[in-house]
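Hi support team,

I'm filing this because I wasn't sure whether my run with oxa(dethia)-CoA finished correctly. The job status page said complete, but I'd like someone to confirm that the output block is well-formed before I use it downstream. Pasting the exact inputs I used:
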Amino acid sequence: MTRRTRIISCGSYLPAGIMTNEDIAKVVNTSNEWIEQRTGIKSRHIAAQGETTSEMATHAARQALAKAGLTGLDIDAIFLATTTPDQTFPATAVTVQDNIGMGDHGFALDLQAVCSGFIYALATADNFVKSGQIGRALVIGAERFSSLLDWTDRTTCVLFGDGAGAVVVEVDETGTGSAKDRGILSTHLHSEGAHRSLLYVDGGPSTTQTVGHVRMNGKEVFRHAVTRMGEVVHEALAQYHLKPEDIRWLIPHQANQRIIDSTVAKLQLPPDRVVMTVSQHGNTSAASIPLALTVAIEDGRIQRDDLLLLEAMGGGFTWGAALVRW
Ligand code: UT7
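And here is everything the job wrote out:
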């Protein structure tokens, strides 16, 4: 008998406001053609004035709980990945804990790994579950990335959007330890701080005492992303001696269609095995993977026993993957 962590439900939230490429072209010197051709993005959701990361996270968490037939009191821990917390402290996760009625049950914390945040949070939850410390958790990726954008910088402001996605994970002891068991088969995390100045925010409490704006060397980030995403997919597959063709659904971080296309080409995966939401969501950082996962669950693409590979790369650099038998 093996102690595994299984994702039992998903939820998501996208703000009502939609900003198209044409809308952005009224703000900065850009065009729908440039954005779509270079990134695959057509539109993104932007949070309303005053709409916070914790509110979006709470919507997604409530949906995931409802789908699992659970309440906040059934949850032992919240792992919330975000780069855009409501406040510097307390953690946004404790607001969600209060909103979903957990009271003083369990614990709640934020994780910061930018666009890899959901993979980091899922890996952390997986290890808490496997160690026996908790039985069930909410793993959330939630971002109000529009708050970090310099709306005069066309090289960054066209890329990002807002939203939240959540999953409920719980212990499953029915498996035998093989790659056929349902649940999270493995997680793989990496970082390399030497590249932190290629993608960063130029503010923070201990430096400028301001929130700051996203700054990026797009070309270098692109180059590293293609390399690292490819590497980590192979690393994840190697653990169980699996081949790329065993992957039923690749659910990559949705940063740029061209980065995803390069990864898929390197793996020689048919493009119809990739879940793509970047055209409608833009890059929602830590929220992008659970948002894409929810879309593919709800439209019926992902079926029981499918092998999923989730992978992401973000500022730091951080990168990682999770192999999941659905
Ligand atoms: O989650 C991880 C976060 N970030 C990423 O994954 C982003 C990774 N990088 C990328 O996706 C791409 O590098 C970008 C989409 C950001 C940029 O694409 P690119 O093909 O690398 O373009 P570039 O930066 O080389 O710029 C090409 C040209 C430049 O003009 P010149 O110097 O050739 O005259 C830019 O000034 O495009 C110009 N440009 C734009 N033009 C219209 C840059 N941004 C824009 C824009 N609209 N929004």
